[in-house]
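Dear support,

Our group has been running a series of protein-ligand predictions, and this particular one with pseudouridine-5'-monophosphate is the one our PI (initials K.S.) wants archived with full inputs and outputs. We had some confusion internally about which version of the output was final, so please treat the block below as the authoritative record. The input we submitted was:
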Amino acid sequence: MNLNKYLDVAPEVAAAVAAGKPVVALESTIISHGMPYPQNVETALKVEEIIRENGAVPATIAIIGGRLKAGLTHEEIEYLGKEGTKVNKASRRDLAVLVSKGADGATTVTTTMIIAHMAGIQIFATGGIGGVHRGAETTMDISADLEELANTPVMVVCAGAKSILDLGLTLEYLETHGVPVIGYGTKELPAFYTRKSGFGVDYQLDTPEELASAFRTSLDLGFRSGMLVTNPIPEEYSMDPAVINKAIEDAVAEAKAQGIHGKATTPFLLAKIKEITGGSSLDSNIQLVFNNARLAARTACALSALN
Ligand code: PSU
Ligand code: MN
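Confirmed final output from the archive:
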């Protein structure tokens, strides 16, 4: 399966892709930059287990020693988790330079989609995507994740987006670029830590089969874009909106006061929110990733039955 001279697809993943069996891609920025050690490694390994229990093969994606990897060993996951923020956060603009230097890179939603697509993987599960930041009308801080969703045909299952972003502008941007935003069992865009945001999604779909059918149709129509599935955090793990919204407001104000900008913004906000909420946001974050992994694996099974 080495279609690309820079790409290493793990043997189990390559065999599953070749046989049309269900595979789910996973990102590594969430490991290196999104959670502290050792919870990051424990979570990443547990997510892989959940994907297997639900009938699919997991493919955690990263750049290691300049190689694009689709499918990591447990040792490689442990390495990325221990190195943490020492690993470069790799978005589309970073990829070629990191590969040519033989460097490591933690893949964001953007680069995970790119590498998943190269490896023939159609579905990817994560926690939250990047989007249009608050104040983007002057800072122009818009995540490359939105561009990638417009240009790479991979379904991304997430728990919505955090209100560290301007959710209304994020939805407008996705509409302009032709990316459908699906609510799984909901008409309302979930806001990551909470099930509600006050914004509607484009369509509600209620089963993995319906999700698979919609994405299969998009591929059949020759669309090059992805599809965004937003899956609300399970009720029992969702946070008190007042508590989390206050933490987000304070984190955004702190980032502004410290002049944080560019690729440092999202990791700074995530760490600050965790600090302010005393770790309870981390528990919610872990649970919603598990929930997304389950849905992505079931959808991958439904998609594989259709293909
Ligand atoms: N949002 C989260 N958790 C995350 C990220 C975003 O709630 O871990 C990570 C993802 O890897 C996402 C990236 O692709 O941050 C977006 O970064 P930026 O805003 O710099 O594009
Ligand atoms: Mn940005």
